[in-house]
Amino acid sequence: MSVKNSLLNWLTPQDLSRISQLQLFARGVVEGVRGGIHRSRHLGASIEFKEHRPYVPGDDVGSIDWKLFGKTDRLYIRQYEDETNLRCTLLVDQSGSMKYRNARSGRPSKHEYAMRLAACLAYLFVSQKDAVGLATFDTQIRAYLEPRSQPNHLQLLMEALTESKPGGETDLGLVIEGLLQRSKRRGILFLISDCFGDIPQLCKSLALLRSNHQEVVVFQVMDDDEWDFPFQQRTLFRSLEVESLNQVVDPEAIRKSYLQKMEADQQALALGCRQHGIELISTRTSRSYSELLSQYLGQQRGYG
Known about the structure:
CATH class of the largest domain: Alpha Beta
Strand order of the largest sheet: 5-4-3-6-7-10
CATH superfamily of the largest domain: von Willebrand factor, type A domain
Distance between the termini: 42 Å
CATH topology of the largest domain: Rossmann fold
Structural class: alpha/beta
Helix content: 40-55%
Largest sheet: 6 strands, mixed
Number of domains: 2
Strand content: 15-25%
Order of helices and strands: HHEHEEHEEHHEHEHEEHEH
Low-confidence stretches: 1-10, 36-47
CATH architecture of the largest domain: 3-Layer(aba) Sandwich
Oligomer: single chain
Number of strands: 10
């Protein structure tokens, strides 16, 4: 029985349509980005060239050393010390603060943006036969898929993403502890979150992953409103994580202190990531996915 047919046993046609739309979206973004960027076979992996061997039918033509072909008129494949597939884990924040969106702007919520970004990364890695896993979390891991590289695994990833719903508070420290128990092999972890909370504790938690031989990349997703604080009139601010926390605020009275606190938090996050060898990419929900992926991919070794 195919994956799609098995899913039909417990997913509605509307559910499957949403999953298919997400997968098509991810494919469109990734293929569009790929059109302008040449990539290495092992994104993010630390591998060293070992030797050449003759090309045989069925080998990946992308591994052919064309410069050597120009000199010898023979096809050779470049071999590397480590040709094992990369293991990736997508860690997607679904806490209540990720629900925020400016409904008048037409932008997606932070959670919707994070879900689509995770879908793009999942499609990218599965299409290059790398193993991809997923963990969605708030105060604990809510859904977990072990990293796998099979093509049918992509649909399971898309399904889990579309089923995720933001709500409640978050405790990244506990989540990291849970991941450390599951992640025994070297790999790369992508945290997609607004990074709200105790910044030093967040960096300390991520450093634990680094000490466990994990490469860590943080995509910090924020709404334009949170960066710029454009509010003018008295506004009711409601907590998206604790329902009882509601307050009417005069934006003019707190704008300066808010922006100063935001700047201080950003500097602390950037410093903490830099100290622990963690890559930080901050973005707005108004930014295109293709632009964001191009930035990330363009910074990796093997791209030009």
